[in-house]
Design a protein that fits this description.
This protein is α+β, with helices and mostly antiparallel strands. It has one domain: 4-Layer Sandwich (Double-stranded beta-helix). The protein has 11 helices and 19 strands. The strands form 6 sheets. Strands 1, 2, 3, 4, 8, 16 and 19 form a 7-stranded mixed β-sheet that branches. A hairpin with a 2-residue loop joins β13 and β14.
């Protein structure tokens, strides 16, 4: 049966998202006071950020807001921006407590590394990053892993993270560049269907992906997973060209055809054309549902002398209201049932 155009609230263009207000929220003074009180309570109890568990960060009105956000992430736009957290009031330790506590009002944090890291600071880590976070030496030079790219000043291509929802807390922004880009994967799907249905069909077929030293959970250095998938009428896309390109350097991984590469090129071009660009300001909280939204970042330049340094706190969240995923996605997600505790990177024994 020919593929059909997708429908739903998470289908939008960048121009449409720019005009919409149902994905934007602002913390009220009462909410920020509630967050501050919750922080003081966990500090009074002597809890470090890693020790904060469900129920430890009590902020009822913020929880009510996050319930609305969770609904919008799964059944609405798939992206949310909450503004107004006074980050300048807090040091790094308190921001970690705040963000980890707030994250648990929305979902369950999962591991972002094979060492079990549950919060990652996204900032430029300089020339040492590739050796720490992953690289491959090839005949054409050094190929950087996705972690290494994330902690550089360079651009990040459209991709998804290995989790239901990724949350970013902006604590500082660069002097130049660093725009955040988001695009509806349903819109990307439909435009590819309109232009090249033959290439769309290839994106529903498995692509080899490398674990690139960052993922565990299997004996093979690569696994097979489609870019697009459907289950019970619900769409999902898991995509990172970096992992696909890295797999092509591994012995035993299937080689991509010219048509498969053309499909990836078209996906990128369509995403760029349809995306929405935004600047994350200090105090902004951005949440993205990886099943229906790709995200990316433009290159940036810091200016430490002017205190213009891009710094984001990242959590990966398994969501209690998440969709069921196709059975063949278990190779990446583990449990594909709706609302499952899933995703993240398996911790090395």
């Amino acid at each position: 049966m020919p593929r059909q155009a997708l429908e739903g609230a998470s289908l939008w263009t960048g121009a449409e998202l720019a005009e919409a207000s149902d994905w934007r929220y602002r913390l009220t003074p009462a909410m920020t006071a509630e967050i501050h009180a919750a922080l003081q309570e966990v500090k009074r109890r002597g809890l470090g950020w890693e020790e904060i568990g469900p129920g430890d960060f009590r902020a009822p009105s913020v929880r009510a807001l996050f319930d609305r956000v969770a609904e919008g992430l799964e059944h609405g736009r798939g992206v949310a921006l909450i503004s107004g957290l006074p980050v300048e009031r807090y040091d790094d330790a308190d921001l970690r407590r705040l963000w980890y506590g707030l994250g648990q009002l929305l979902g369950t944090p999962v591991s972002q590394s094979n060492a079990g890291l549950r919060m990652k600071i996204i900032q430029d880590e300089g020339a040492a990053a590739p050796a720490i976070h992953g690289k491959l030496e090839t005949a054409n030079g050094t190929f950087l892993g996705s972690y290494s790219r994330a902690v550089s000043t360079g651009p990040l291509r459209f991709h998804t993270d290995r989790t239901d929802v990724v949350g970013l807390l902006c604590a500082g922004q660069a002097s130049e560049g660093g725009l955040s880009k988001v695009v509806s994967t349903l819109a990307v799907h439909n435009e590819i269907l309109r232009r090249r249905p033959d290439l769309l069909e290839l994106l529903y077929q498995p692509y080899p992906r490398s674990r690139l030293g960052e993922e565990k959970g299997g004996e093979e250095l690569f696994y097979l997973l489609p870019v697009f998938g459907l289950r019970d009428g619900r769409f999902t896309s898991h995509y990172s060209r970096t992992f696909i390109e890295a797999a092509q350097m591994l012995p035993g991984a299937p080689r991509l055809s010219a048509a498969q590469l053309e499909a990836l090129d078209l996906l990128h071009a369509v995403a760029e054309a349809l995306c929405y660009r935004m600047t994350l300001a200090p105090g902004d909280l951005q949440f993205v549902n990886n099943h229906v939204v790709y995200h990316a970042r433009e290159a940036f330049q810091n200016d430490p002398a002017q205190a213009k340094v891009r710094r984001l706190y990242r959590v990966w969240l398994a969501m209690p209201n998440s969709r069921a995923l196709p059975e063949d996605h278990a190779v990446l997600w583990g449990n594909v049932a709706a609302g499952a505790l899933r995703g993240g990177i398996a911790v090395a024994p």
